[in-house]
Amino acid sequence: xxxxxxxGFSAFLLCACAGIKPQGAxxxxxxSTNPDYSQLENWAAHPEKSDPADRNPNGVTQASQMDDKVDxxxxxxxxxxxxxxxxxxNGDLKDGKLNERTDGSTILYQASIFNGAGRVFAPRYxxxxxxxxxxxxTSSSQAAFELAYSDVKAAFQYYLDHYNQxxxxxxxxxxxxxxxxxxxxxxxxDKQPLQAQLVAAYLVGMPVLKSAFVAIPxxxxxxxTNCFCSWRTYKKDYLPKxxxxxxxxxxxxPLSWSTDNIYQPKTExxxxxxxxxxxxxxxxVDAQVEQGxxxxxxxxxxxxxxxxxxxxxxxxxxxxxxxxxxNAIQRAKTFIQQD
Length: 339
Hints:
The protein has helices at about 5-15, 95-110, 140-165, 175-190, 320-339, and strands at about 45, 70-75, 120-125, 170-175, 200-205, 230, 235, 270-275, 280, 290, 295. By secondary structure, the chain is an alpha/beta fold.
């Protein structure tokens, strides 16, 4: 079973079943030190350091990121899920085990997708605990997300001030990263001067309204720029009850890069990356947009008989690893040629 799939499924079990969750109401005391983004240790991925986002599956080549003309700002999903000692509302940037978990899962399996399109920047941030999405303690949950976003915002501002130098930007995110990514786009790009530098945004794993932004529409073709893509993946014929569904949700089919509901067979899938990062699995899943979500037929791979969930959230990007990679490269090239 996929390493990243196991991480996500285990996270659900730890939080929802084992009851390991933050203790007490939110307190800023345990998180009073703001991260210094001039220090490379506070970046999970950065073009000036060697990190898992630099790696590629076998057969995929990539030149040095230092030569790229585009930047990718990647926001990782929740990896702070309730392991032993993880009882604060926000993760600690000095928690070495948490950082290893982040680097060995989402930075390797997700952020690396984008290293062909540009230099990858992925900040560490004091992410909200997974339980913040489910708790009835809304005041603590909101405070936890606010603290997490304050780090994301600070990291992005530092990136703009010290690294960007007018370069085109791709925003990429998954799950909690998308929670913050939508807000980042609204604040820094939507009808702002910086929007002129936006190649595209990949806001994956959370429901994003078609009308989320004033001036940034959903992408409709593989080469559209200054737009956003978004999808949430579920087993075919299943519709989630907990989250919003319907025509108001933007859904991109990552096999066609269209928002229509035309079925795309798995022959269009250029390669997934699951258990072994080095190995590509071509033609693993199909895809079809349906009622605010993306449907795929249950994939077959070694160990897939254990894969019984109908929610494929944790594989939103990995099922379509090479399609997303090639599309990001394509949009970056189109943007540069238009400039």
